[in-house]
Amino acid sequence: MKAGPNWPSFEHLRVRHAEQLAGILPGHYGALKVKARRYVILRREDWDLMRADVQAVQDLAAALDLLTLAATAAAKHQDEVTLRMLSGASGLCLPVVEQFLERQRP
Q1: Which residues pair with residue 28 across a beta bridge?
Q2: With contact defined as beta carbons under 8 Å apart, do 81 and 38 qualify?
Q3: Is the separation of the CB atoms in 77 and 89 below 8 Å?
């Protein structure tokens, strides 16, 4: 995300607001200052992409946690069931990792 328009007060945004908001280009954000607070304004498409990125990172973290737990269990208990659990966990994690890496490509 790159910085876009900046409004020092709500009054500056209020005047011709449709034109002002249209100045927020895809991949950019607008900044609005109201008293001591700052607000960020995003296009809906950028918000949706950002939320999808957050979900992908959360899914990746959960998959890696599962794989770490399975690997730890397999290191302590090297029986057939635990090794099958590790194999199954890695099989479940692989698509999540692939999806995450796919989202990172330009």
Answers
A1: 2
A2: no
A3: no
* Edge-to-edge order in the sheet of strand 37-42: 2-7, 28-34, 37-42
- Model confidence pLDDT, tens digit, residues 17-66: 999 999 999 999 999 999 999 999 999 999 999 999 899 889 989 999 99
pLDDT tier at 93 (50, 70, 90 boundaries)? Answer: confident
Domain range annotation of the chain: 2-42, 45-104
Amino acid at 13: L
Length of the chain: 106
3-state DSSP call for residue 34? strand
Q: Which amino acid is at 27?
A: G
If residue 31 lies in a helix (H) or strand (E), which one and from where to where?
A: strand 28-34
d(CA 74, CA 52): 33
Q: Which CATH architecture has domain 45-104?
A: Orthogonal Bundle (1.10)
Share of the chain above pLDDT 70, in %: 100
